[in-house]
Amino acid sequence: MIYRLYEKILLRDLQKLPEQICFMITGQDMLDAPENIFRATEWSRELGIRSVMFHISTDAPASLERCLPRIRAISSIARLTLYYLDKKEVSGEGMDVTVAIGKSGREEIADCIRRMAKDGIDPEAVDEDLLESYLTYKYEPDLVIKTGGDHLTDFLIWQSVYSELFFLDVNWALLRKVDFLRALRDFQSRARRFGR
């Protein structure tokens, strides 16, 4: 009952929402609470957030195979792009949701450089815009949410340089809508400077 009241207060006070959000969770988080990925998508959609990304940090993506049905269920309420192993799946309609399992920002940048070299790009022609055009994830989150207090991964290392970071003090398995709303409230209280 108290959480419902607190949720209403938080919702009432939300004025400025991020357009793009990235949740960073671990493979163990996903195994412990696979249903939360759908819930967080629903909450984001209800609030009118434009797009959401979930990065699931793991060295063993195949260990999350049993979670794939829960992840794919997102396509019933949103447009899902799923990166799993070396595959990319797109399904559904609506708000953009990307799920990247076991991807690394360092790998992504190294891959950009390899593709530029393969395409014969003159090193003098390489600038920020060209590098960004080679990135796999064309996604610059306004807000990165990390649950459970662990450190961030290097995922979206280039794209999130100006993102606001929020470390939730609860584990992914215990995530409630009120925790998500707390992160959004914190976001709207910040003065974004984009590196200036």
Short description:
GO terms for molecular function: ditrans,polycis-polyprenyl diphosphate synthase [(2E,6E)-farnesyl diphosphate specific] activity. The protein contains 7 helices and 7 strands. The protein has 196 residues and is α/β, with parallel strands linked by helices.
Q: Could you characterize the architecture of this molecule?
A:
- By secondary structure, this protein is an alpha/beta fold.
- The protein has one domain (19-188): Undecaprenyl pyrophosphate synthetase (3-Layer(aba) Sandwich), CATH 3.40.1180.10.
- Helices cover 35% and strands 20% of the residues.
- It contains 7 helices and 7 strands; from the N terminus they run αβααβαβββααββα.
- A 7-stranded mixed sheet has the order 4-3-5-2-1-6-7.
- A hairpin with a 2-residue loop joins strand 3 and strand 4 (87-91).
- Helix 1 (2-13) packs parallel to helix 7 (177-188).
- The relative contact order is 0.19.
- The model has no long low-confidence stretch (mean pLDDT 85).
